[in-house]
Every structure is written in C-alpha cells, then in structure tokens.
Write a structure and sequence with these properties.
2 copies of one chain form a homodimer.
Chain A lengths: L5 H8 L3 H9 L6 H14 L5 H8 L4 E6 L6 H13 L4 E6 L8 H8 L5 E4 L22 E4 L12 E4 L1 H14 L5 E4 L6 H16 L6 E3 L5 H12 L7 E4 L2 H14 L8 E3 L5 H4 L7 E3 L2 H17 L8 E4 L2 E3 L11
Parallel strand pairs in A: 1-2, 1-3, 3-4, 4-5, 5-11, 6-7, 6-8, 8-9
Antiparallel strand pairs in A: 10-12
Helix pairs in contact in A: 1-2, 1-3, 5-12, 7-8, 9-10
The structure holds a DNA duplex (16 and 16 nucleotides).
DNA sequence: CTGAAAGCGCTTACAG
DNA sequence: CTGAAAGCGCTTACAG
C-alpha cells in the first residue's frame, strides 16, 4: 500500500534495480522484451520515480527558477511565455518573488546552492541576489544564471544578460517630446539611486541637455500607480507646471493620468504623458498611452536560450550581453504643447 | 574544494555526523560547548546542508506550491502577500503557472507526488489539477491542498477553499444597475461553461429575472482586455445597444471602455460599465471603474491559514469552505441611463 | 544486455 | 549528551 519504489518494480518484473533504472533513463540500452515487461509492471502498480531521490542522487534537478520582483506585474506574462517556449518540456519553470526574500534570503540561497534548481533566470534588479553564490569552484561548477529585462549591476556584469538599451530608449522618447515642442519635461522616476531607472534617467538627462534644456527635473518616488498619483499631486497642483511628464514605467503614467483627470487637466492638450514598458494597460488607457515598448516575449526567449546554452556547454564562459530593440509607441497621450 | 558535507564538519569538529545533524535540527539536545564548536566549524568552512539530501531523507520539503493561472495578473500580488504573511519563514513559496502545464502536466504531478512540496495552494480554477493525485492511501497521507480565490469544481468540493460568494456578488452588482434604472444589461463573460464565471453568470441571471427582465443577454468571450474589446465591438456597433455592460472581470471592462472611447460612446452617460475584482487598474481608469472588490489579501491569509492547519493536523479532515465578504465599489463608470 | 555493489548526504532510532 | 549503524530510493561505473 506504500508508495511503490524501484525495488518492487524490479522484483515484480524479475529484474534488477539497475535494469529498471535503465528502462527509465536509457531505454535504448535495454532489451525490448525486458523493457516491455518492466513497463507493464510500472503501469500496473502505478510506479513513479521519486523525484526527491532522483535529484539527490544526480545532484541536480530539472527545474529552472525564474525570479521576479512582483508576481502581479503584467509584463511578466509574455516573458514567461517566451521562456517556456524555448525551454520546452525539458525543464520545469518555477517562480519566486524577490521581494519575499528581502529578509528571508537564506532559503532562496539554499535552494540555489543545494541545486534544487539547475539554472536561474533573474528578471529583477540584482541587489537581492548575492553574487558570491554563483562563484563556483574546482569541483562545483557555477550555477548558470542569466539576467533578463532589467539592467545589470556592476557586481554581476560578467553574467549573460538580455535587455534593451534603456539609456537610448529614454533618450529617444525624450527627444520625441522635445521634437514636438516640449521644453518643460519632468521625468517621474522610481526610487533614487535604483539601478532599474538609472539608465532611463541618464537617457532623459542627456537628451534634455543636448537640446539645451539644462534645468533638469527628475522626481523620485515609487514605480507604481500610487507613485504616479503622488508625483502628479505634487507636480500638477503648482502654478507652473511642466508641459510633459515622462514616466519611468506605465504604472506611474497611469497614476499620473488619473490624477490629471481628477484635476481637470486634459491629456494631451494640457499635459503630455509618456510611459515606459507598453504593458497591456497602456493601449486601453484613456487616452491611450504613448510609451516605449520592450520586446517582452523576445526577452524571455533570449534569456532562456542563453540559459539553455550554458546548461549544454558547462565549460564555456559566455558573458553575452544581448541588447534587444526597443520601440517608441506614440498613441494619444502625447501631443504638441498648447502655446508652442 | 568540493562542497563541504556533514562528514567534513564532523571530522573537523571531532564529533560524529549524528551530532552535527543534531546541532542543525535540534540544538537544544546538544551540549553547549559541543554546539559552539560545531557551529564554529560550520561557519569557517561555509557548510550548508544539502537540501536535496535533507528533503529526500525526510521524505518532504519545506516548500509550498502556489498555482496561479497567469503570473501577470495583478490580483495575485496581494494574495501572495497574504499567503506569505501567514506562512512566515517556516515555508518557502514557489509558484507555477497552471496554463503552462496544460500539456505538460506530468511534471507538475511528479512534483506533487514526489513531495518536493509539502502543500499546495491552488489559485486557479481546478480543471488543470487532477484530483486523483491527492487521494492518498494508508501509508501515504494526502497532500494538503487548499483552493483560493476561484470557485471549486464538483470534483474537488471536499477540499478546503476560500472565496467570495460569486453568485451573490454578481447578484448585488446587477441589482445595483437595475436599481439605478437599467433594464438592457448585457453580461460580458468568459468562456462558455467556465467554472470561474458560472456563478457570476447565474447571479446576474437571477437578479435580472427577479426584476422582470427575462430577456437575458450573456456574451461569452475571453477574460481579458482583448476579450472586452472584441465584445464591445460586437455590442456597441449595433443600432440598439444595451445601456449597461456588466463585465466578468476588470480587464474585460477596461477593454470595453477603451472601445467605447474609440467609438465616441460616453461612459457613463451613454453606457454604464461595471467590472469585477477591483484590480489596481480599476481605480485609475478613466472614468474610474465601478466594480466588485474581492478581499484579496484576506483570501491569501485565509488559504494559508487553512493550509497551515492541515499541515499541523495531518489527521483531521477539515473541508472548510470559507466565504469571504465582497464589496460593491461604485465609482464613475456607472450612472442612471439617459432616458430613464 | 544485465546484475551486484557502492554510494549520494543526510536523519533517526538504538545503545550507551 | 553522544556515537555507530542502518537506510531513504535511486544511479552508475564495473564486471560479466
């Protein structure tokens, strides 16, 4: 009545454990008749290999861990689709939220070190992740890690990564706003000093400077709807307002637009708003949000491909950084400023 | 140079493996001086127990698996916060997407059966999950499973679950629309026959019937922005339109509103739109979306508490179904119909 | 193509 | 409070 093991299968089939194991893992090396007999027994008693034992014995699992900051962010849907499309049925994907490990952390590390996972895809800015862990040694190959979507901290610069050129993307978007006549543009960003937004801030700043707008306005806050609302309350209730707000992500932009609507400020007539990410909520916003699109599915595919490569070529040191193309999406939330 | 094991720690500390193991798992049963010595060695050589071995030996892990349909859905953020708040540091949470297991499935099952996880929280409608797996037997206790957020199929009716009363919630929302004067209301739903929306459809239908509106209009589609857009294109381009659309979730409602805006149909003046879920995007929509709120964080907390209870009381058969309160949130997307 | 045997790293009664 | 020993279920050289 207890869960059947390889031993019972062997006994019932009249073969050794080894043979059963071979039937499972390298059936091509087993006599056809033996194989059939063993498989019949497996079927009959409903045997399933104990993964825990298997992983332990092999010293590794077939699980790829994907770390995201926050499960509810819609941008991850497509990325995961891409990842799974590439990984196929060879590996299972499990997810963890990095914010959950802020204090915990230890478990997360144990999981990696203990090789319950065979590789890691980090879709979150890196601070959470202790680079020492992937060091590896003579006997212990380093655990393959690929960073996707977000920029890479200096610590982890030697890891393969896949992302857009955030500096250039922000530069392009800012330049677009300047080109249509805006001069008073505020960049509504995330936390000060955060890696995620640093490149975007610099891109904004450089574009502004190049256009002769030396009075840089960057507002730090939170990369969320709430953050956008807070920023809007500060920026839009002043006597002199910027004519355009370039937001570090779409959630901020959505928060900004909702406050603008509350205050009776018309977008884009009185205020242009530009987002970043092109999440599913950008296109259906009212007005539809102009934004910078990241090729999310491709980010997923490419990170997974890099991981696969690392998995299949354990020796190679491939610090490949892939820069994927971004795309400016102009919808209805941006327009020439009124008085220009 | 190889990864240190318990054996090396024992040798270096001059004790047996057993003692090292005890230092790790039941330090209160170890002499203070021994403990100190062993801990020092552990520290020095950077020993970390091999989780794979530990789990295998113990026959279980300390991981709780949370299954969601789609990682990108914002509703899961709060639920997971609630789950983790309750589970604390005693368990790690990993996530899997049920949609990914549509074909795969086998791996998912293996993971459960192999007890790589100690319990499961299902936040997705149940079809994906094969109830036979949790059967258990004399020697094998059933794996604790708690269903949260979504309604439970008949198959799994004996499992503990936590959700709102979807029938009543939809009934309340519909009644509200009727009370403010609407008679031509269409329910924009998900897939036909889907468990997720069945109760909401019935709640809508019952409220309509009770109000004497016998001509029921339910449109089936997809529970997404795209689905809402498609539905709106069908419903709003006709000569005779409903005066209100009650959508099975907020994403649909957002899709509907965006198409309405495109078509120049004013919400709520020409058309009332009601959502369901109260995701973070509802409040900032333009106009802000009236909807039905689910107590998401509480759903997470309660499912986790039920799981914890099941974990701590393996014998007890507690098929507790918890019905949590919903809340009607009236914002600006609903109003009296024009001609009433 | 198959089997006997060792062993992965840990835990757990059982003695002492 | 501590140690010697068995064993969890599987895989993997090594013989044959």
């Amino acid at each position: 009545m207890a869960k059947p093991t390889i031993v019972q299968v062997a006994r019932l089939a009249g073969v050794s454990n080894s043979t059963v194991s071979r039937c499972l893992n390298q059936p091509e090396n087993v006599d056809r008749k033996t194989l059939a007999r063993v498989r019949k027994v497996i079927e009959e008693i409903g045997y399933r290999p104990n993964l825990l034992a298997q992983n332990f014995r092999r010293g590794q699992s077939d699980i790829v861990l994907v770390v995201v900051h926050n499960v509810g962010a819609s941008i991850f849907s497509d990325i995961l689709d891409g990842i799974r499309a590439v990984l196929g049925s060879r590996f299972s994907v499990i997810l963890m939220e990095s914010r959950a490990e802020a204090q915990g952390h230890a478990r997360f590390i144990d999981l990696l070190v203990a090789k319950q996972v065979v590789g890691v895809i980090l879709l979150c800015a890196s601070p959470t992740f202790d680079p020492r862990l992937i060091g590896g040694s003579d006997h212990q190959p380093r655990l393959p890690v690929v960073i996707g979507l977000e920029p890479v901290s200096a610590d982890l610069a030697d890891l393969p990564s896949v992302h857009i050129d955030n500096h250039r993307a922000a530069h392009d978007a800012t330049t677009y706003l300047i080109d249509i006549g805006h001069r008073e543009i505020t960049f509504v960003s995330g936390e000060k000093g955060s890696l995620i937004t640093a490149d975007r801030e610099r891109g904004f700043a450089d574009a502004m400077t190049q256009a002769g707008c030396t009075d840089l306005a960057i507002l730090h806050g939170d990369l969320s709807i709430q953050g956008g609302m807070a920023a809007a309350h500060r920026l839009l209730t002043r006597a002199i307002r910027p004519t355009a707000l370039f937001c570090a992500n779409d959630d901020i932009a959505l928060g900004v637009m909702s406050v603008a609507a509350q205050l009776g400020i018309a977008v884009p007539d009185d205020l242009s708003v530009m987002g970043f990410d092109d999440t599913v909520y950008a296109a259906t916003a009212n007005p539809p949000l102009s934004t910078v699109a990241q090729p999310t599915r491709e980010v997923g595919e490419r990170t997974a491909k890099q991981l696969l490569h690392a998995l299949d070529h354990p020796g190679e040191e491939a610090h490949l950084t892939e820069i994927l193309p971004h795309r400016l999406i102009i919808r209805k939330s941006t327009a020439r400023p009124r008085q220009s």
